[in-house]
């Protein structure tokens, strides 16, 4: 929200008060409290009839500093609030000198300037990252309504990323972003997943700890500042530090919650009924049998909205006209080895038998007059489940458990953005704050019932809406995109932005949700989709089975589905990393190569894990134009190499995509290309790419519970490569990519191949002299 009229003036009807004169600075157990007048105080009389602003500065965990601005502290604070994971045993240190007081937390410092005027700067290991000074922080009255605003420095050449899953330009500089969940598709400034956290290319993050609307002015009100404002009498934000951008995400997700580990089966190919299509068990079987007849591995089948009867969403009952024997149908599908997902949302249509029950028991959100809030959008007369009522949550979860007892494995938690503000919640929550926060309670309830009944690492959602902390309940997908290249590119931008907002796992509707893609787009999107964290074929008015597009689509889908399954030892390792460090599986290039300024602007390619570069193709000509960082990279598909540090332009057929392996990589490729959940260590092949003299490459192989099962390490010293493998006695192999022969090999039998020298070990350590 802009309060100024250009740089010099404020808008008409706006009164703005800034901290100016530090009157007192108190320290208590690692917490600083600064009391500041909003005008210079020269004599005692100046203290009368004036405003005082208070800044509280503390540290909840190492490398994170909290700043809380307060005007009137006596105003009642009504929840909800984001859950913050503070370490009760952590205390920041404080140092004083005549002009400055410095609070230190890990490598992060907040330095308060006491005179001649207020100022606050943040340093990481001695390097200034950002700060706030005169006329930046402000208490504002706009047409009599109170707001708090902060403005943090934005350096020359500094880029801002994140703020949730945003489909607007990847770099947020110059944009006005309101953190307010809306059902706006993927082609506007609206977003399903608003997260009031941004990541800076300068090496820090900022989390504004307010679930209500936060208005960001990213170099748009003052071009050298990131401004953010909230209504009310206080403002709280965290500066998140770290040695690298990955460390910043690690610290941010320590603060707001780490992602859970989705089950391994969820990384396979998902096929859905689509949305408004006609289907029954015979239709579903025709899809599944068609995939099997064409040897396309299929792992999850999803039933979209019309598994329930129209007008009755949600009643959690199968439409008996279409599915007369749901238990038997699910049993038969699971006998084929499929997992089952069904669509739900948190709305109860008036025609649903559950509406009356929910109304009678106070399970639905109410209006101020005590009546149930209803409208006719989406479902006629629908109400909204009130998850602030523990009994309503238990009631909702009970219906999901009944479906799980039938054989349902997970739920697509659709919607959660259309949340009214003219309502009253059971626990008295502020409806403005609940607008964004509602999705957190909704997805948490569904995730909990899955975890309670399936166990840890077996729970996963397919969720559309989210806010800060929502990363704890994966997976999230990109919403209603269209069947064109523009929408494919905007979907990727949204996913990369979400990944830089602390979310580890993300998916999208392969070939677009709205309308039907031509075969060209379908095949290009399949390659992108199968090289994403999670992979789902889904649409609106038409089915998404490949043979309805063309026969080549069948081959393309088979190829990339099998490729993803074979990459699961590598991919699951990075899934575990996402849960431990908060680093996304699909990551913007800047996250891996912050030292390369070219990567700061890239939003049409990404790293899949640490070692694979993916550049989707966004045109009918099959032209890939992408940037390769320094080093000698190898195509995983055809084995060709490219020297990086430059842009590359190539032509690709439909069964190809730029998929490059980073130099100094030990890539674990599995022995099974038919499903994602298998024993990754059994007959794993370790492909070693371009190991430099003095370099070390490591691969960790996990079991399906995310526990390390084996570790492989390759070290090169001059012309000698040593490869060790520990943790299991299961068979394994090695391929030295690009190396045709060796002078001597110890610990393995060797044979030449087109890919490189293949080694069959008979010891846990191999030595190769080139």
From TrEMBL:
Keywords: Glycosidase, Hydrolase. Residues 259-573 form the Glycoside hydrolase family 31 TIM barrel domain. CDD domains: GH31_N (cd14752), GH31_xylosidase_YicI (cd06593). Pfam families: Gal_mutarotas_2 (PF13802), Glyco_hydro_31_2nd (PF01055), Glyco_hydro_31_3rd (PF21365). Residues 582-666 form the Glycosyl hydrolase family 31 C-terminal domain. It comes from the Bacteria. InterPro entries: Alpha-glycosidase_related, Gal_mutarotase_sf_dom, GH, Glyco_hydro_31_C, Glyco_hydro_31_N_dom, Glyco_hydro_31_TIM, Glyco_hydro_b. Residues 55-217 form the Glycoside hydrolase family 31 N-terminal domain. Belongs to the glycosyl hydrolase 31 family. This is Alpha-xylosidase. It comes from Paenibacillus glycanilyticus.
